[in-house]
Fold SalK.
Amino acid sequence: MSTLPPLAGRRCHNAINPLHSTVYFSPDLGKELGELGIDDSNAAYFAARGAALGAVGPGTVTATFYNFNHDLVVRHLPAVWSVASPEAVLEARLRAVDTTLRRLLGPETIDSPELAEAAELALRAAEACTRHARPLYAAHADLPVPEQPHLAYWHAATLLREHRGDGHLAALLAAGLDPVEALASHTATGKGMSPRWVLATRGWRRSDWEDATERLRGRGLLDGEGELTEAGVALRAELEDATDRMDAAPYEHLGAEGVARLTELARGFLFTAASAGAFPADLIGKG
């Protein structure tokens, strides 16, 4: 039986996860990987997020990332590893994280006891993550923990993100949602990536999106205006509940007091980063 308040783990994750994601929107990542010879934004994303897995081919990335068009992945993998090794990419990624967080959070936050505390709490939570059936988490768990608190916090956020994400993919499979259906139904909640950003970054065409929404209508999950039906709302809620169940261990391990404190700290860092322009203004939404 859970010792945490309802949804406490999800709220904590929702505060931590976006700070991890700031590096993917940062010009610093493109700069660091560009200096290695990786100058395509899609190749940079696949390399930066996938490098912990080693010099894998497109099948592994399509499987573990879930919502990308395999044809897009094939264009860049395994070719990117002939340009830069996974080890070099991981080093470049950490340099980009360093400069990105220093710019977004500012020197006072970077050197603050609160950031060091958040790193310690997040790493403690990650102690209870499990490797089985969680390939992206397991690959990152094999990486060393950086010494500097802001990098250690980002590393812990990565572990917690990928642990929940790997479990979420299992929930999507169980719900019978293919990659584009998963994206479209999430966007319909108003909390997912906008269609423009999905189509620009995931390799899908407008016709793929329209076909997916039509399939969702056929299942009674979307209405004629593309809004979630009652059944669609219930399915998305069950997806998150199932993900919560598979991701409970880190937050139960940290305990109610630790989760509440980590959530408080993470929200503060996220607000600071977002206010500094960490994310595109049109990233989230139905339009």
About this structure: The chain has a mean pLDDT of 97. Residues 248-275 form the longest helix (28 residues).
